[in-house]
Design a protein that fits this description.
The chain has one domain: Class I glutamine amidotransferase (GATase) domain (Rossmann fold). It is globular and about 55 Å long. It is of the alpha/beta class. The strands form 3 sheets. The protein has an 8-stranded mixed beta sheet with strand order 3-2-4-5-1-10-11-14. Strands 8-9-12-13 form a 4-stranded mixed beta sheet, covered by helices on one side. Helix content is about 25%, strand content about 25%.
Length: about 240
């Protein structure tokens, strides 16, 4: 599993976090068809299947001969006749950012929670950024309800930790709010990622942190006995 914070303020024309997306795809090895091609499906539910989101991710894979790329949309109905069969046949699933609250509501309405677990247990790489990072964890801070950050605790929980994404944003107090939620027990201990940093889990254990930006890092955040929090930096490997 690979969960990361995308770079929100990218320069005009820069592709969607190419190094992190490529790392996610690389975790699928050579694919399961035996021809070297990897089947990768992008799931843009968190943006309501926004055409702009689909275009941005599709652009990353334009011209690739080693990847069979597809997109699963759920609005106004699923874009494939058998969602379970399509997802379980993939080598990697990429879940985009947006509203994690709406993402989880739509997935649950379509019965995708057990399907995602089935994919994970079958060895499909589950990956995503922002909302697509939070969803695999227990929860974390979100702006899904309003501009003000609120606690979200309804994630899939495949990973038994909380998750703080965009932990380096200056225009929102994400870093402080996440640690406050962990300190007061509203969220369990967990991992935070600054923009451009990803967490590679093997099973439910963190294998390594990776980054596409120099100086960015991940953090382990846990409550401290005095009612506060303790955070430890995790130096990522540069991609």
């Amino acid at each position: 599993m690979f969960a990361f914070s995308g770079v929100l303020n990218r320069p005009p024309g820069e592709k969607r976090d190419p190094a992190l997306v490529e790392y996610a795809v690389s975790l699928a090895g050579n694919g399961n068809k035996g021809d070297g091609n990897r089947r990768v499906c992008f799931i843009p539910t968190a943006t309501g299947d926004s055409p702009a989101a689909i275009e941005a991710v599709t652009e990353v894979f334009v011209g690739r001969t080693d990847v069979d790329f597809s997109v699963l949309t759920l609005f106004t109905q699923p874009s494939v006749p058998d969602v379970e069969a399509h997802l379980i046949a993939q080598d990697a699933l990429l879940v985009g950012g947006g509203s994690v609250v709406n993402l989880m509501a739509v997935w649950r309405a379509h019965g995708l929670v057990p399907v995602m677990r089935e994919c994970w247990e079958a060895g499909v790489v589950l990956a995503g950024w922002s909302a697509g990072s939070l969803c695999w964890h227990r929860g974390g801070p979100t702006d899904s309800f309003s501009d003000a950050l609120a606690v979200f605790t309804d994630g899939l929980g495949f990973l038994p930790y909380s998750n703080g994404v965009h932990d380096s944003l200056d225009d929102q107090p994400r870093r402080h709010v996440y640690r406050e939620y962990v300190a007061n027990g509203e969220l369990p201990a967990g991992y935070a990622t600054e923009d451009g940093v990803g967490l590679h889990y093997v099973g439910t254990e963190l294998h390594e942190a990776v980054a596409m930006r120099h100086g960015a890092q991940a953090w382990w955040v846990q409550p401290s006995p005095d009612g506060g929090y303790h955070d430890e930096p995790i130096a990522p490997r540069m991609l």
